[in-house]
Amino acid sequence: MIAKIGKGNDFGRLLRYLTRDERGEVLDMRHLASTKPREAAREMQVAAAVSIRCRKPVMHISISYDPSDKPPSDDDMRADAAEVLAALGLADNQALVIKHSDRNHRHFHIAANRVGSDGKAVIDSQSYPKTEAALRRVEARRGLSATPGRHAPSPTTGTRMSGGRRAINPHQHSAPESVRQALLTAKSWDGLHKELAHNGWQIENVQKGKRPAGAILIGPDGQRIAAGKIDRGATLSKLRARLGSEKTKSTANPISARTTSKKPLALAKPSGAIDWKKKRKSNPEQRLKDIAQIGAETAIQLVGTVSKAATPRGGLIGTNRKASTPTRKRKRPSARLGL
Questions:
Q1: Positive/negative CA dihedral, 140, 142, 146, 148
Q2: Residues 245 and 283 in one domain
Q3: What is the pTM of this model?
Q4: How many CA atoms lie within 13 A of 141 on its CB side?
Q5: Angle between helices 177-185 and 189-198 (to 10 degrees)
Q6: Which of 11, 168, 194, 267 is deepest in the core (most CB within 10 A)?
Q7: Is residue 155 part of a domain?
Q8: Beta bridge partners of 88
Q9: What total of structural domains would you count in the chain?
Q10: Residue 22 C-alpha from the chain's centroid
Q11: What are the start and end residues of every segment in region (Disordered) (predicted)?
Q12: Is 97 within the bounds of a domain?
């Protein structure tokens, strides 16, 4: 059994796609008052509008069966859908289960509302591991063919799917098979460089910020592709484990490397500071005398600084302020009025 999961924000569009040309047969309508898919779409859209924070309340799950197994009945599909929804925490949420018969293999779709009756959205993290774990339990219970997945291990073998991806990403450059074989079969870094150069490719190390370093392959036309995208066995960590320390080119900035390698500047010592390295083996009494001398000099400097700061306002410290301040005669009011 294989699962595919998608998320969106329009229930009407999804249900129109699942029921167009009368290709879909509704198997179950969970926690819905409506009896038709279009009415259910409007009902689910209104229920999802209660949550302000959830921007993608639509969860679309597609479950496919192995063609070599016995075709499941409608009751089996309902039970499998209920187990998948329970694994995702959507057992009490609105959902439609629709069966399709337009392919050679049996499969059904689930249109679920992540927003529950309390107005809170179910967290959608780890959706694939939860779904694949539920499918592995169904396969083991009903004796179906176990399909290894990338996220949940098989209950019988305990292994996950490994190797290159089967689906090609149209936005990602592809590398020839000879380059992939060179990455997987190289015995040394020199041999890897020679084999890649023979095909017009080269490998470099890249590192962005604090992220771990990675290996990048550069093609003859300038295309760049991560080594781990070609095959999971060709990541930089696995190449290092197999070939030892790498000899690939690094794209680190040499200027930043020189800047970070500089030693910090030493601070200038004050004039009266004691060199304790020289005084380490000296007499303790002499050390105390030196400290007292520096303390006395510092106190004299502080007293002089305070004296200069206080002179404009009240004269020198210790002097008689009345004697230093000239007396000022007070004029009588009659003198100002001319009397």
A1: negative
A2: no
A3: 0.51
A4: 10
A5: 170
A6: 11
A7: no
A8: none
A9: 3
A10: 43
A11: 142-177, 310-339
A12: yes
